[in-house]
Amino acid sequence: MKNLLLFLLPLLLFAKPKFSDEQLKAMTPRYFQRNHSAPELVGVSVYQTREGRVYQVDIMVDRNRANKDLEFAYSALTNMGQYAKKPFNQFIVILHSKVRDNPPQICIGKAKCSIDCFVYQKVSYEKWYKECIYFKEL
After folding, report:
1. How many CB atoms lie within 10 A of CB 77?
2. What range does the domain containing 56 cover?
3. If DSSP codes are grouped into helix, strand and coil, which group holds residue 50?
4. Does 62 map to a domain?
5. pLDDT tens digit string along 96-112?
6. CA distance 30 to 26
7. Sign of torsion over alpha carbons 134, 86, 30, 112
8. Order of strands across the sheet that contains 133-137
9. Does residue 78 sit in helix, strand or coil?
10. Among 14, 65, 19, 67, which residue's Cα sits nearest to residue 28?
11. Short-list 46, 123, 136, 128, CA closest to 87
12. What CA–CA distance (Å, rounded) separates 41 from 57?
């Protein structure tokens, strides 16, 4: 019994904290606010679909910085999403533009692949962009 306790103690001490969906939604605006180069956050959602759990942010993008804004948003989703009590299947970023006739673009990405890219750096950004995400318009 003592050996089991000695084995489990380090796992408990160094385990990552886990947050509820409501806590993640409340923390997301702060994550964006603390970085001056972050895009404007318009909304945050966590919901369930047929494909599984989704963590979504809506951002206002500058057309000159759209790729950097997308990268920041996915970095935020992956960094925060890895601490969820229940794992996510998809991360979605909806890119809104101030240009009047430009409809919002939706970028849908696989959660595991995105975390492997942005958190663990197991997947290159180029490979992530080609294989882990896809775009569609509203």
Report:
1. 27
2. 18-137
3. coil
4. yes
5. 998 888 899 999 999 99
6. 8
7. negative
8. 40-49, 52-61, 90-97, 105-110, 133-137
9. helix
10. 19
11. 46
12. 7
Locate the DSSP E strands across 62-113: 90-97, 105-110
pLDDT band at 138 (very low <50, low <70, confident <90, very high): confident
Count the residues in the chain. 138
CA distance 48 to 129: 24
DSSP three-state, residue 98? coil
- Domains held by the chain: number: 1
Look at residue 5 and tell me if it is in a domain: no
Residue 71 domain-assigned?
yes
Q: What is the DSSP letter of 85?
A: S
Integer Cα distance of 108 and 123 in angstroms: 17
CA 5 vs. chain centroid, Å, equals 35
Q: Is 77 part of any domain?
A: yes
Instruction: Look at 3-12, 46-55, 100-109, 120-129 and tell me which has the smallest mean pLDDT.
Output: 3-12
State residue 25's pLDDT score.
96
Instruction: Supply the DSSP symbol for 20.
Output: -
DSSP letter, residue 122? -
For helices 66-81 and 111-118, the axis angle rounded to 10 degrees is: 100
